[in-house]
Structure formats: structure tokens, C-alpha cells
Amino acid sequence: MSEDRYQPYQYGMPEEPQFEEPDLTDVLEEQKIEEKDMNVEPESKEETKTNSEPRYDYNYSYSQPTNQPPQQPRNPKNGGGCLKVFGVIAFAILFGVIASMVFQGTNRIINGLFGEVKQTTSEKKEEIGTTQIVTGNGAKVESDIADVAERVMPSVVSITNISIQEVENFFFGGTTQYEVPSSGSGIIVGQNEKELLIATNNHVVAGSETLTVAFIDGNSANAQIKGTDSDIDLAIIAISLSELKSETLEKIKVATLGDSNKMRVGEPAIAIGNALGYGQSVTAGIASALNTTIEGYEGKLIQTDAAINPGNSGGALVNANGEVIGINTAKIKDESVEGMGYAIPISDVLDALNELMNKKTRTKVPEAQRGVLGIMGRTVDAQTSQYYNMPEGVYVSEVIEGGGAEKAKLPIYSVITEIDGYDVDSMEDLQEELQYYKAGETVELTIMVQGREGYTAEKIKVTLSKAK
């Protein structure tokens, strides 16, 4: 064998060497000579390679073992390969026919049992460069929550309360008045010949100078307070139908009230309201707990994990049937608490709603025309009531000479708890209620008078005097 066959390339890449197919006998003889020179037995293991010298192997063909004679290739039988090919093709066709018949038969059986299943969505492919994206065909998505929201939202309104707050002026002395807006929600619960009646929370409308109600169509109107109950944080406000546009009346509707007593823990609960004052929005969850009590509220509440944020107060909590089962009223404001909102169970306040809806709608009187009781008083809050063992309300510490209270012989040291049936829990409540009365009008006060056996309730009528 020539040594040039193993000579490494020295410069660049020469042309590929051309080899002639050696005679098989010569190759075998040459291998025997090489093995003898290297003192390696013909059947010994392959030589261990080292990195000391480079080794180049250019064997491109397979060599037969030395101990076996070369085998001559077999001549295939004429036509044998074709028969096999035709056999495979015939078997594949037969298998496809049988599989198709089985598949169609199965589909017919399934459609007979369960009805035919149709593909309701389609897709199309669009190419962006060399990448494909898949887009839908814009088909309407069916959702129970979306259906409920669509039915209920015409019954829910947004409420904006403009109140007046006095802030002490540290530089010039005295106080400065500011208009402060706040947002809430309401539920349309009734309509009579003259008014549209809306339920909300008492704290949503408290201290209001003006109340503006916005409807689903974007139109708005001014509202008046019809009645409030601070103990259960409930209020009814009214809007004159004459102030509403015909297009608004066509789009709004009275809500359907459900039975909150039949509510079960785990049932769907959907909250709708004017969250953060941004307009109507919908959140969904479940009824997490029933008959829940929280500090600062006398009754029992529905707890839900549906998000109830500032502005949702007074809005609707509805079930999967779209029935109002609660009036959203509070949310724990704590960074460590998540998913705990509350609603007043609608069944617990039906009587209160009916009573407030049938009260006379009142309009605030201009300040120059308002009447006064003619007393000096102070608030008896819950803490003071417990400490001194006396009722909550307004403690009458002094009666002004010549005023309506003196003329009506209102007892000093008594506690005013109501005025014309409206609860009075503080001096602020009393002053707010007096905004609806002119000087010369008569009001009926409910007072608690202390006796030997404690406090007893009495009623007294007072004709309001003009402020001096």
C-alpha cells in the first residue's frame, strides 16, 4: 500500500484524491502484513488512540472480515418486489375504507343519542411576515353574568352628593365653607304617578346640599330626599317624572327584588354600581357568608367576595336570576383584608323601604326662611350614652327665651330622638332635618325625659321660630 495515502495535507486543501477500487485479495494480504509488522494478532482489540501523533483515516468503504469469504449479492426474483408493493397498497386502501365506515357509524350513533354537535366558532389565519396569527370571527360570547348585567343595569343609577363642609381658617380665623362632592349608587325600586323612587344608603345622601342622579343613558336629574333611616343605613330619594326625558324613561326600569332569606352560601353574587365615581361597573363573586355582623351596624349583612369599592355603596347585589338580594353598604378598609364586601339583605328592610317610600317628599328651604327650635344642645353618641346611661340623640342643655321650644315648654335635660318621624342621632342630624322647614311651621318631636324609673318617651309639638 502506498504511503501517500496516509500523508497529511501540508498547505491548504488539495483536490480530493481519486482512489481506485483495490482488489479484495490484495487488501486482505496488505492488512495481514501490517498487523504482522505491528506485532498485533489478527483478532486483537483495536489499538488505543493517543494524542501524541495525529491520525488521519480516509477509509471510505466497508471491509469484509478476514475470516469469511466475500458474499456475492443475490439476484432478486423477477416481479417479487412489485407484488409486495401492490399488496401493501391494497391493504392500505382496504383499511381506510373500513376505518371510514366505522367513524361514520360512530358519529351517527352519537348524534342520535346527544344531538348533532355543530362548530359555532371559526378561525382565520393572517400572515405577518413569515409568522401566522389566528383570529376569531367576532362571534358573540355567551355569558350568564353578561346577561344578568344587561338586564339589571337599567335599574341602577349613579348618585353625586354635593355637601358643604366648614374648615377652620388658621391664618385669618373663623371658618371657610367648601363644596365637597362624593359618589354613590342607587336602585330604582318604585314609580308612582309623579315620582321615580330610588333606594340607597343613608350615608350616600347625608349632609347633601344637592343630589344629582345619572341614568344608564347618560342623562341626569336632581333628586330630593324622601326618607332616611340611619340605624340601618337606608334612604329613599325621589325624582319628579316631569324632570326626566322621554328617552330616559324608555331605557330605565324598576328593579326586581328577590328573597335574600333563600340565599345560600356559595351562590353567585353580582355587584353593580358607580365604583370610584367612574360610572356603572360590574363585579362578580359568591355569597361568602350570611347573617354577618360588623361593628357600627345594628343588623345582619350578606358578605361577598365581589369587589365593592367606594362609590358602590347603595348599588345592587343581585343573584344569578337578576333579582336584587342586597343593597351594597360597606367594605372593610384594611390593607391586610381582601375580598370582603357587605350588603344589606333586601328581605330584612322591605318594611322600612315601604315606609320611607310613602313619606312626603321634602324640598330644602332657603336659609333665610328656615325655622329653628330655639335650644342649645349637644350630641349624645354611643360612647356617651353608655357612660352616662342615657339615650342617644340631642341633649337639651338650654332653652332660648322667646323661642319655639320655650313656648312649647320643652323640658330642659331631655333628649330629642326624632323629628316628624325622622331619626335624630346628633346635632348635625337635627340641623339637617330643620333645613326642610320654614319659620312658623310646626314639627312633632319625640323626646326622652328622665324620671325616677329612668327615661320615658314623650311627644311634643313645637312651632318653629325665625332665626335671629
Descriptive notes:
With 468 residues, the protein is α+β, with helices and mostly antiparallel strands. Among the domains are: 150-251, Beta Barrel (Thrombin, subunit H), CATH 2.40.10.10; 260-347, Thrombin, subunit H (Beta Barrel); 367-466, Pdz3 Domain. Helices cover 20% and strands 33% of the residues. The protein is built from 9 helices and 22 strands. The chain has helices at 24-37, 80-114, 144-152, 202-205, 246-251, 350-357, 382-388, 404-407, 427-433, and strands at 123-128, 131-136, 156-168, 175-191, 195-200, 208-214, 220-229, 234-240, 268-273, 281-292, 301-304, 316-318, 324-331, 341-345, 371-372, 375-380, 393-399, 415-419, 422-423, 442-451, 454-463, 465-466. It has a 6-stranded antiparallel β-barrel. A hairpin with a 5-residue loop joins β12 and β13 (324-331). The chain is elongated, with a radius of gyration of 46 Å. It starts with 23 loop residues before the first helix and ends with a strand.
